[in-house]
Inverse folding.
């Protein structure tokens, strides 16, 4: 095992060195470094501590410590518990907790994602093309934005494309090593740091990585959870998480919100972001499926500001219909 780890470390270092070589004369953000051992051990110890049914919750029922939410909302099956787990991961890795591992996670993301983006201002997308700060500025040249507002918008877009194109949608059928990245709750909650270090992650793994980076950069963000499958019952891990980014006057957001489902004030207009829909996701299927996805999603995946298919018909209609069934709450918006 140690031998394989050494080989993997050497491979990662070589990839890092090669990735810093200018592409088309532009130095792009390199792949991330491996996780520090102490941080990696923390995540696996956390899973060992929460592997019982009552704490990790295999069905959609919140456990006894969340019974108040069940009674108040009459929601036996609810995304609430999953939101709590995702929120915990986001808060921990953004450095919001006063613990050594939380600060370590924050430093990892700063050194491997945020600082390189601010330094190099260029990303190598999954198809090999280059996206720069200047490209995004040029796209918004018709907007009457001051320098600070424009810079905030450009940074928000760069973070989105990082999570879309530097984190690939896994394919465990063809690549057995993708198994960890392809798992979801209740089996595995991959933290944002783990997802970024693996450069692979399923649906909300990419989403909470993006939400964590936004939180670290001071953006207002929320999660919109809805069933990954249109039919109940809805188990933990059976909900898809769309990131909602508050529009800071850019004129891109379309979703108007006042409060989240816990009664917190999150008033504003929000942009839907779903980095799961990347090129790897598009290409993961039969030729017919690939062509269909290209037509509905795009050649490279959802662009910044494109609505998530989970918030479009017919998936949205199923969620809305089943939300009327007593004891079932299919949709949940929670501010971060």
């Amino acid at each position: 095992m140690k031998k394989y780890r050494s080989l993997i470390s050497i491979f990662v270092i070589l990839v890092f060195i090669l990735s810093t070589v200018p592409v088309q004369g532009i130095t792009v953000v390199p792949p991330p470094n491996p996780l520090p051992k102490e941080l990696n051990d923390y995540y696996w110890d956390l899973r060992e501590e929460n592997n019982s049914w009552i704490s990790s919750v295999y069905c959609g029922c919140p456990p006894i410590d969340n019974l108040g939410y069940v009674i108040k909302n009459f929601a036996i099956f609810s995304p609430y518990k999953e939101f709590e787990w995702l929120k915990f991961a986001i808060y921990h890795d953004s450095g919001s907790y006063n613990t050594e591992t939380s600060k370590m996670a924050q430093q990892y993301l700063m050194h491997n994602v945020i600082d390189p983006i601010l330094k190099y201002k260029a990303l190598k997308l999954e198809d090999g093309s280059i996206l720069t700060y200047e490209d995004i500025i040029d796209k918004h040249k018709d907007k009457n934005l001051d320098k600070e507002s424009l810079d905030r918008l450009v940074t928000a877009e760069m973070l989105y494309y990082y999570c879309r194109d530097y984190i690939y949608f896994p394919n465990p059928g063809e690549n057995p090593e993708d198994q960890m990245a392809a798992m979801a709750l209740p089996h595995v909650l991959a933290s944002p740091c783990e997802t970024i270090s693996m450069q692979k992650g399923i649906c909300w793994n990419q989403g909470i990585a993006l939400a964590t980076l936004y939180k670290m950069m001071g953006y207002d963000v929320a999660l919109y959870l809805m069933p990954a499958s249109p039919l109940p019952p809805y188990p933990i891990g059976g909900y898809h998480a769309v990131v909602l980014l508050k529009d800071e006057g850019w004129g891109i957001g379309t979703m108007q919100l006042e409060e989240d489902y816990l009664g917190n004030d999150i008033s504003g207009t929000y942009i839907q972001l779903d980095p799961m829909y990347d090129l790897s996701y598009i290409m993961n299927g039969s030729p017919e499926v690939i062509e269909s996805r290209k037509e509905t999603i795009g050649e490279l995946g959802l662009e910044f500001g494109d609505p998530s298919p989970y918030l479009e018909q017919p998936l949205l209609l199923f969620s809305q219909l089943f939300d009327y069934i007593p004891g079932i709450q299919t949709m949940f918006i929670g501010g971060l």
Notes: The first strand starts at residue 75 and ends at 77. The two ends are 39 Å apart (CA to CA). The mean pLDDT is 82. The chain has one domain: 35-94+123-335.
